[in-house]
C-alpha cells in the first residue's frame, strides 16, 4: 500500500526528503556511471583500433603503389 | 575439470561467453533494482523511530554487502592469478577494484546522509565507519598500484599481495559492531536466526540485495571485458572484432 497521503508528502518524506532523495539520487547516478563507463571505453577502444588498422592498410597500399 | 579451467583462462572464450549473459543480467538488474527502489521508497512502512530516513537502508545495506563481498572476489582473483599465473584472473582483479571502491563510497555516503537525521552527525570515527574507510583506501590503493608498474606481471603480483593482506580488514568490519561500543546499529540480517526486521520492510531489502548482486556481476563482467580488449588488442580476434567481421 502507498505509504503517503499525496505526492507532496511523498517528496517531503516527513521532513527527511533531502536526505532520502539525496542518498538515492547520488547512489543511482554513481551506479549508472559504473555500468556506462566500461561500455563507452570499449567502444572508444574498438574505434581507435579500427582507424589504426585502416591507416596501416592505406600505408601498405601506398607503398605498394610507389614501388610499382 | 582441468580442461574447463584452462578454457576459462582464455580471454577470448570468456569474452564470447560473457557476451551472451550480459543482456539477461542487465534486464534482471534493472527490473530488480527498479522494483526495490519503488517498493522501498513508497510502499514499505516507515520506521517507528527513524521515520522516512530509514528508507536509505535499501541502498546502504546492499551497497555495503557488495563492497565487502567484492573485496573477497578481488582478493580471490588476485590469489588465483598469482598461484596459477592465469591472465584472466589478473584482469578480474583489476576490474573489481574500481567497482568495489564505488560501492564502498556509496555505502559511506548513504551512511553519512542517514546519520545526520538519525544520530545528529554526518561522520563519527567509530569502529564500523573507520574500518569501512580503510576498505575504501585499500581499494584506491590497489587501483593506484595497478597503474604504477610498467610490467603487467609485477603489477599483478603487487596488487594480489596487497589485496590478500587487506582481507584482514573484512572480518574486522563485520565484527566491529559487536566488538566495540559504537553508534552504528548491529547487523540487520544475520546468517543465523531471523532478521530483526518486519517482513514488510525486509522483503524490499531482499529484492534490492538480489538486484545489487546482479549489478555487481554485470559491471564486473563489463570491466573485465574492457580489460580483455585493452590487453588483447594486438591479437587477431580483437582486430577482427574492431573491423566488425
Helix content of chain A: over 70%
- What's the overall average pLDDT of chain B, rounded? 88
Task: Using the CA coordinates, give the radius of gyration of chain B.
Answer: 20 Å
Strand content of chain B: under 5%
Helical region count of chain B?
9
**Beta content of chain A:** under 5%
State the end-to-end distance of chain B.
32 Å
| Count of alpha and pi helical runs of chain A | 2
Question: Mind telling me the C-alpha Rg of chain A?
Answer: 27 Å
| Helix-and-strand structural type of chain A | mainly alpha
The rough form of chain A would be described as rod-shaped
Number of beta-strand segments of chain B:
0
Structural class of chain B: mainly alpha
Shape designation of chain B: globular
Which stretches of chain A are poorly predicted, pLDDT < 50 over at least 5 residues? none
Span between N and C termini of chain A?
A: 81 Å
Q: Give the assembly state of these chains.
A: heterodimer
SSE pattern of chain B: HHHHHHHHH
Helix share bin of chain B = over 70%
* Largest protein interface, residues of each chain: A-B, 32 and 44 residues
